[in-house]
Amino acid sequence: MTYRYQQLEKWILQGIRDQRWPPGERLPSIRELCEYKQLSKATVMHALQRLEAQGILEARPKSGYYVTHPANTPSVSSRIAPPRPVTVSDLLLDIMQRSAAFDLLPMLNAGDLPVAMVSLNRCIGRALRRQKGSAHQYYDQPAGDAELRKQLALHAARRGWSTGRDQLCITSGCQHALFLALMACCEPGDVIAVEAPGFYGVLQLLQQLGLKAVEVPTTIDSGMDPEALEQVLTKWKVRACVLSPAFSTPSGALMPEQSRRRILELASRHDMAVIEDDIYADTGFTETPPPIKALDTEERVILCSSFSKSLSRDLRLGWISGARWHERIQHLKLVTQLASSRYLQQGVAEFMADGGYASHLRRQRSVLSARRDQLMRELSRWPHVQSFSRPAGGLASWVEFSPDVDVLAMYHQALKQGVVLTPGPLFSVSGQYRNCLRISFAHPWDEKRLEALAKVPQLIRHAKAGPIL
Amino acid sequence: MTYRYQQLEKWILQGIRDQRWPPGERLPSIRELCEYKQLSKATVMHALQRLEAQGILEARPKSGYYVTHPANTPSVSSRIAPPRPVTVSDLLLDIMQRSAAFDLLPMLNAGDLPVAMVSLNRCIGRALRRQKGSAHQYYDQPAGDAELRKQLALHAARRGWSTGRDQLCITSGCQHALFLALMACCEPGDVIAVEAPGFYGVLQLLQQLGLKAVEVPTTIDSGMDPEALEQVLTKWKVRACVLSPAFSTPSGALMPEQSRRRILELASRHDMAVIEDDIYADTGFTETPPPIKALDTEERVILCSSFSKSLSRDLRLGWISGARWHERIQHLKLVTQLASSRYLQQGVAEFMADGGYASHLRRQRSVLSARRDQLMRELSRWPHVQSFSRPAGGLASWVEFSPDVDVLAMYHQALKQGVVLTPGPLFSVSGQYRNCLRISFAHPWDEKRLEALAKVPQLIRHAKAGPIL
Q: Which CATH architecture has domain B4-73?
């Protein structure tokens, strides 16, 4: 299904590509477009504003909409749209809720459980059997189990981040940690800088908390661009910046140390909180890099993480280190959920203390790296690909097709064939990335998954050949 | 520690009791009080406003503060204070966070686990061992495990509430459900009607969400007074009413069917949401009464509950039935926490399907009823008690002492002796109930607990004899 504004958007884009309106040219007026295409003013405005947000058009007061310079070489500044309330369209919401959790195929529940999960489950089982007396009649302390926090602090120290158990609070996963972080340091209406492309879960949180997003461009190998962030901070008062410096989704970029230091300098100068989504750090193929939090001398970096990407999504255990907001965060956890399961935390703490987590990570690193290599070989044979990321960690690659490939059309076509794709526009609030896909290598390339992958090139060709209004 | 405004409050109360200012009399002016007691204007105002909130004083514009009619026979209307933002004092916050989870004694982790917990833990262990393939690499659906929701719907049917699994969403406990309910149907600044005395977890939620509380008086045997609620609704636009009709904390009151129907009529007439905290329902000594939700024909009752009071506080599993807000609630759960543990839900579902939960409740009902009886015998021998509740379910009784017993002083004195009390002011936003205590019978009356209980009469005598400024 295509909305009228989307049809108009496509038509204008095609006209720009065909040089009907070359760079610098004024577009027909809103009234002219309404009459010519038989559309309402609201529909025409909607399409023009979306193109403006993508940096393709530029509004000049009392004059009209002009074509900016070619979309393939925009300067960073022309790509930054002003802060806006987040409104996730129903279509994208539907994709997020029903399919974004899957990659290529719906869940299959067969085969053997990995050895790490077997020993983790044994630890959890032992913790359950160790329950005595009326311990189950008491809530755990809001900060979480002290032994688990100790193990997490030890794990942090091994990657160059020196922290203590008192600086950690256990949460129900990383999304819960991000929620607590935003709730603690922002007020409705505040402007939050986010990565573009960036994690859709953050965008939905901003929407629910009434926060505005300003999208900061990232590159597929080094993450958020500090120069672009600086331009944003010069223009707008930004309360917090959410970023994922280690193997961020969708591209798997790893932010270099120089950029990290630069971002902390900017945060200090503009009194901005930094919310670090650290969830992919332990998926690094050679090591777990240190977090930005390790460089934080001003108590302004809130680190959020969980076991979901590195061990199990079904544990629902994460953690947060809340810097100057830590006490408020712990209180918010208490108020919104009281506590986490004590037995579960004890089981995971035992698994870590036994070395189970560290040896799991050692095995996992080479497994993931091999899965990435196999995906890279496939991607290099796909048609109409302009670029794709080759991450050193994480669980996915970001593929950019030529601008006329429409991945939303492709998504629907793929679903009919039982293949689940993750379309680019999920990763933005401004409808960008209609020619991009995230492709995951989180799962083994078994026969069924390879079959699904083999269907994609034909889907790309079809999406490119699709009718343009 | 007593603050200056509290000292002044006590002094004025004493003067009222001594008939220095009889009912209808004007109090000295603010300036006079400042000079006479050598206090700042802010301190004097603070004390006067607190006494006004308690219905002891009445402010008449351009005239001053007047003593209302005697506090022991107030009409309902004089006891209702206007809606106010909730500010929990640091002292109460501290009590809530550190001690309110305990009753009489800190946690003891010894002795045998109850038989129901052993079989529940076996079910959870089996669910862990049944995990296959890469199921742990997928988040559960936001609504929660279908089999657990089916078991909850069957349990609901047995108590006269006909519901379906699609109307239930699994949460991380009842507090999490209450949070989702308030987040879904209210906006900051909205007025929420709450029980007085009522659950402090709700008051803290209102504070964090920027909601205003209006306290509706309850009675110790039948809960929220519908007549008082009607007066409130006539005066103020109330967005939602949070109430716990079955064995509410602190008194254990059970709301009669007539009051339930009356409250639903009022909700309908004033377009108000009803948030039903159902957490104690399964602790009923003879049966689990039906919820108000069973009478809801307009999709305006949100039911919140969990296993914390009836089975285990460490499971962190609750549920919500969100009426017309259900879809939004499910989305909020997704956005703030993604999902709940699938294996855990499967384990609990198996425990319920095996009949383990039903037989646990059967045993538990008579155990709790005997524990209540033993507490009642003790309470009837305590000094300076004016009344106490004799609930037919729940885990506590509400004890009201003569007005000159100060339970906050008693709380501090008790802590020094290793006894943990739950003081009355925890259950109100207006500093009421300084002469009330909640006493729990959640735990077995073992020797240590009986020893702690035996210390209370002396503590009461001491708190009554305490110096009054």
A: Orthogonal Bundle (1.10)
Please choose, from the candidates A325, A254, A327, the residue with its C-alpha nearest in 3D space to the C-alpha of residue A292: A254
Q: What pLDDT score does B71 carry?
A: 41
Distance from CA of B93 to the nearest CA of A (A): 9
Architecture field, domain A95-112+359-465: Alpha-Beta Complex (3.90)
Percent of chain B at pLDDT > 70 equals: 95
Given a contact cutoff of 8 angstroms between Cβ atoms, the answer to whether B40 and B8 are in contact is no
Widest Cα–Cα separation across chain A: 79
Q: CB B131 to CB A110 under 8 A?
A: no
Question: Helix (H, G, I), strand (E, B), or coil: what is residue A439?
Answer: strand
pLDDT given at position B468: 45
Pairing state of beta strands B212-219 and B223-224?
A: antiparallel
Q: What is the ipTM of this complex?
A: 0.82
DSSP string, A203-252: HHHHHHTT-EEEEEEEETTTEE-HHHHHHHHHHS-EEEEEE-TBT-TTT-
- Model confidence band, residue A469 (pLDDT cutoffs 50, 70, 90): very low
Instruction: Report the CATH fold assignment for A115-357.
Output: Aspartate Aminotransferase; domain 2 (3.40.640)
For the ranges A64-68, A89-93, B199-203, the maximum mean pLDDT occurs at B199-203
Q: What angle do CA B335, A99, B343 make, to 5 degrees?
A: 70
pLDDT tens per residue, range B390-401: 999 999 999 999
B136 to chain A, any CB pair closer than 8 A? The answer is yes
What integer is the mean pLDDT of B189-198? 96
Provide the angle, in degrees to the nearest 10, between the axes of the packed helices B342-353 and B115-130: 130
What single-letter DSSP state applies at residue B105? B
Mean pLDDT of the region B412-419: 92
A335 CB within 8 Å of a chain B CB? yes
* Residue in A142, A179, A340 closest to B336 by CB: A179
Distance CA A56, CA B325 (A): 39
Architecture of the domain delimited by B90-112+360-465 = Alpha-Beta Complex (3.90)
Q: What is the pLDDT of residue A256?
A: 97
Residue of A nearest to B126 (CA): A125
Give the model's pLDDT for residue A468: 45
- On the 0-12 / 13-18 / 19+ scale of CB atoms within 10 A, A327 is exposed
Give B191's DSSP letter. Answer: E
- pLDDT for position B57: 84
Query: Residue B299, CB half-sphere, CA atoms under 13 Å: how many?
Result: 7
Torsion of CA A56, A59, A60, A65, to 10 degrees: 70
Location of each CATH 3.40.640.10 domain in chain A: 115-357
Burial of B380 (0-12, 13-18, 19+ CB in 10 A): exposed
Rounded Cα distance, A236 and B2, in Å: 46
User: What dotted CATH number matches B115-358?
Assistant: 3.40.640.10
Of B129, B140, B313, which has the smallest distance from its Cβ to A137's Cβ? B313
- Output the CA angle A318-B91-A303, nearest 5 degrees: 20
All CATH 1.10.10.10 domain ranges in chain A, comma separated: 4-73
**CATH 3.90.1150.10 domain span(s) along chain A:** 95-112+359-465
Stretch(es) of chain B classified as CATH 3.40.640.10: 115-358
DSSP secondary structure, B306-332, as one string: ESTTTT-TTS--EEEE-GGGHHHHHHH
Residues 270 to 309 of A: which have CB under 8 A from any B CB? Answer: 308
Residue B69: the pLDDT is 61
Question: What residue ranges of chain B are covered by domains with CATH 3.90.1150.10?
Answer: 90-112+360-465
- From the CB of residue A111, how many other CB atoms can be counted at a distance below 10 Å? 12
pLDDT (0 to 100) of residue A92:
79
pLDDT of residue A327: 94
Answer yes or no: is pLDDT of B348 > 60: yes
